[in-house]
Design goal:
Blueprint: E1 7-10, E2 14-21, H1 23-27, E3 36-37, E4 48-50, H2 52-61, H3 66-72, E5 75-78, H4 79-89
The structure holds zinc ion (ZN) (2 copies).
């Protein structure tokens, strides 16, 4: 099953598939923050990523609570922006 609506128009990359990332990853471009992400499968087609700080909170809470979602402030990014976030934040300091 494919959903053709899951496309965004990125200012940098043009039309691309969507992905999600926490606002810390998107805004924190000065140093790597860690990169944790969901595997994609048939039910979960858009990759979602979050930073090391969100991961620590998630581990403490056990699941994505409303409070955690509010802190993470997950945003939609294009799949190419997602890859560039991955390269930046997953790199060792
Ligand atoms: Zn985060
Ligand atoms: Zn992009």
């Amino acid at each position: 099953m494919s959903d053709e609506n899951k496309i965004i128009k990125c200012g940098t990359h043009g039309q691309a598939g969507i992905a999600f990332a926490c606002s810390h990853l998107i805004q924190g471009r000065e140093r790597p923050l860690g990169f944790f992400y969901t595997e994609t499968d048939e039910e979960n087609q858009e990759p979602q990523a979050w930073c090391g700080e969100c991961e620590a909170l998630l581990a403490g809470a056990g699941d994505w609570t409303d409070e955690l979602l509010e802190r993470a402030n997950i945003r939609v990014v294009c799949e190419f922006c997602f890859e560039s976030l991955r390269k930046f934040h997953a790199s060792p300091t």
